Amino acid sequence: MTDDRLLGADEARFIAAARSDDTTRFALLTERYRRELHVHCYRMLANYADAQDMTQETFLRAWKKRESFRGHAALRTWLYRIATNACLDFLEKRNDRTPVPSELPGAGSEVLYLQPYPDRMLPEDPQESVVARETIELAFIVAVQHLPPRQRAAFILRDVLGWPASKAADALELTVASVTSALQRARVTMREQLPSRRLDWRSPATHELTSDERGAVKSYIDAHERNDLDGLTSLLRDDLRFAMLPEAGTATVTAKDAVDGWVSGGLFQRGYDDWRGITTTVNLMPAVALYLRTPEEPVYRLFAVAALHIVDGKIAELTGFDAADQPWLGLPLTL
Q1: Would you give per-residue pLDDT tens digits along the chain (335 residues)?
Q2: Which CATH architecture has domain 3-198?
Q3: pTM score > 0.85 for this model?
Q4: Which residue of 50, 59, 136, 185 is surrounded by the most CB atoms within 10 Å?
Q5: Which CATH class is domain 211-329?
């Protein structure tokens, strides 16, 4: 959606609402942008709960600054500017929102605060969506976290949202030259952080799962329900990238290391051998919600969500999340 399409009626109505202190009209005019602003904050912060807080902070700041809006830019642009700076202020105050070195040799760094994004919360109208699959998948979100905050903001505004340099510079209160330099450095870092098969984040993308993805998800669930470690192992690429969040020290870069860790943790042994799985999606990726029934329990309880990146029918990246404290995923707690 272009700014030109928004200039005019919305801006005039917003100015009228601001001048009359009409909170109801203000809410109606701004609420339509909530989901895409939330996605924007999530890209900046990689954490669903933080993004929720900063989206709300965006609306609070917009109300407080309502009289400063003159309609020189589209309302959407103005809100994105506020959201970006709210995220930058948040990152300036938090020293726990950067990747940390992995405890395991060769595993790089870990983004322990990473949370999955429920697809049901993404913008509904594909023509208005600011989401392409490559730019919401977990590998991309993790790579973005390796950028310094202002460089991160410049990259997202320019390469993800497609803003011209002048508009991004205005939003960040930087010169065009500074934004251009920040973008060039950001692109280098992104290409260093993303796996080689994931380098083009600007190509057109479909949101539909492929037959390979659907088949691998089914096999992943079947292996758990059959208590079949060999079957699970056969689904993994040798260069599997694995992490279980928010636990530190779980990141691995080979299937063997991942499987060894699962076995030592008791996977498919007594107490961890009665599984059920349901197919879901997060971050526009195939995912499985895993439910475990222990010997003392009459029901299967939600245990974890496994987000899968599948290449040629095999799992190339597996990110597990403790699902107990993530109610926004909308999953049943028991089966």
Answers
A1: 444 444 477 777 777 777 777 788 878 888 889 999 999 999 999 999 999 999 999 999 998 888 888 777 788 899 999 999 999 999 999 989 999 887 766 667 889 999 999 998 888 765 555 677 788 999 999 999 999 999 999 999 999 999 999 999 999 999 999 999 999 999 999 988 887 655 555 554 555 788 899 999 999 999 999 999 999 999 999 999 999 999 888 888 899 999 999 999 999 999 999 999 999 999 999 999 999 999 999 999 999 999 999 999 999 999 999 988 889 999 999 99
A2: Orthogonal Bundle (1.10)
A3: yes
A4: 136
A5: alpha beta
